[in-house]
């Protein structure tokens, strides 16, 4: 077992609002995993931050007629609030071009580049590149769109095709169009530094093969498939103004910056260093997390980032030689949106501004735990799924309210009414009661095992299966009847139900931390008692907190 865990989620571009697809794809499962690790007693850090450099920010700034820094800072702060509202709890939320992080991030990125350069893994090459004659500038990958030369899908950017997931050679794009002027692009010559990815094919293949039993097969098969085709050289510099300057004493490096996908994953490292500086006064503490083989580094990403995290980033780490390679790369597919029966990608232009699909809008109207629950229930772990507002309402009402919340409410209101709000004596427990506690122990093991295996949907299903079993148990024990016929038997049943509520609080914590804290408060316990282990039964006479509604029922049209 690793001694500690460093968990990251892909850095979101700081040029737009967050939507449900972003959250369900990377940030929520990572948060769930970290909460579980800590409840289990492991040391873990959760690292994230905004991706502020590169083409995407430049484009957004140009469209808004403002500066890249203003765009990056504005959306960095908005996204940070969205994450906090959903109780996604990072240890640090940095930014590759935010004032508190820029100096350290640029230093780390430039040192990374120079170290790889000095080892001879870069090729300087004059090459042809797409150019916009109207804008009078070269077009980096994401400044150009066209038809994919692999699968003929329209709308592919110059770095990767979202339809087939393969890397794009922008010069092979069919009918390339500039994203700046929307005019046809032409080919001209420029100079860049290329990382020779083919130098790392053998070590990458060996490393990936060693992960077959641990990683999702979709990630392994995709990465090995790319190696089988042959990894191309990849330009790691760009002809744009916004980014980390190329750290070379070479006239051809003037006015060039590092490719955003070179410096962005280095953000995981520089943000960790900044966190160590803020906490302990020494940024060098990051080495414990990145260079110690007893640390497991786990990346959570969306499917479009697989090629970077499973191939390019590990190649960079191998070339640099100072840090551990990822312990796991957990990639999820996309979450689309289903409105009026039609399924599509969430679109800035097509999705209404006030739609709760946007996290900022959702948080104005609904409980964050309901969304955390639903996005886990439809997690796109093996295939793309869709956020359906009507299904969200149905599952909230039929599962969270009618099953989970119903059992909690029946149990705690019964104890408040008939046992003076205290835990009754369990001395008369029966075999049925003891079997139910065994079922709770099994649920704890099953949910934990599935979280460890990054099967979050299945873990959630196991939790809900236990919640339904609790309702069935309540019905079988009939405390409303035994209260009149055998008070000792009734007391044992309710004490067992209260013990089951304690289990549910623990089981819910990684998925729905707000609900878990409410349950702990209703049990009259301090929050820090949440540990991933069978809880001891509360003593007879232990005072319970005031019962409260755990989940609110939603109206059918509340998301319209």
User: From the 3D coordinates, which CATH architecture of the largest domain would you assign?
Assistant: 3-Layer(aba) Sandwich
How does the major sheet shape up? 5 strands, parallel
Please identify the top-level CATH class of the largest domain.
Answer: Alpha Beta
What count of domains describes the coordinates? 2
CATH superfamily of the largest domain: HUPs
Gross morphology: elongated
Unreliable spans: none
Under CATH, the topology of the largest domain can be stated as Rossmann fold
Cα(first) to Cα(last) distance is 47 Å
Keywords:
alpha/beta, Rossmann fold, Isoleucyl-tRNA Synthetase, Domain 1, 2 domains, 5-stranded parallel beta sheet, 4-stranded antiparallel beta sheet, 46% helix, elongated
Q: How would you explain this protein's 3D organization?
A:
- The protein has helices at residues 20-39, 55-64, 68-85, 102-118, 201-209, 217-229, 260-280, 286-290, 306-320, 359-362, 368-377, 389-418, 431-452, 456-477, 479-485, 487-508, 513-522; strands at residues 4-9, 43-50, 92-95, 122-132, 137-138, 144-147, 156-157, 174-178, 186-195, 234-235, 237-238, 257-258, 295-302, 328-332, 335-339, 342-344, 385-387.
- Helix content is 46%, strand content 15%.
- The longest helix is centred in the C-terminal third of the chain and has 30 residues, at 389-418.
- The strands form 5 sheets. Strands 3-2-1-13-14 form a 5-stranded parallel β-sheet, with helices on both faces. Strands 5-4-9-10 form a 4-stranded antiparallel β-sheet, with no helix packed on it. The chain has a 3-stranded antiparallel β-sheet with strand order 7-6-8, with no helix packed on it.
- The protein has 2 domains: 4-121 and 196-332, HUPs (Rossmann fold); 389-529, Isoleucyl-tRNA Synthetase, Domain 1 (Orthogonal Bundle), CATH 1.10.730.
- It is elongated, with a radius of gyration of 26 Å.
- It is α/β, with parallel strands linked by helices.
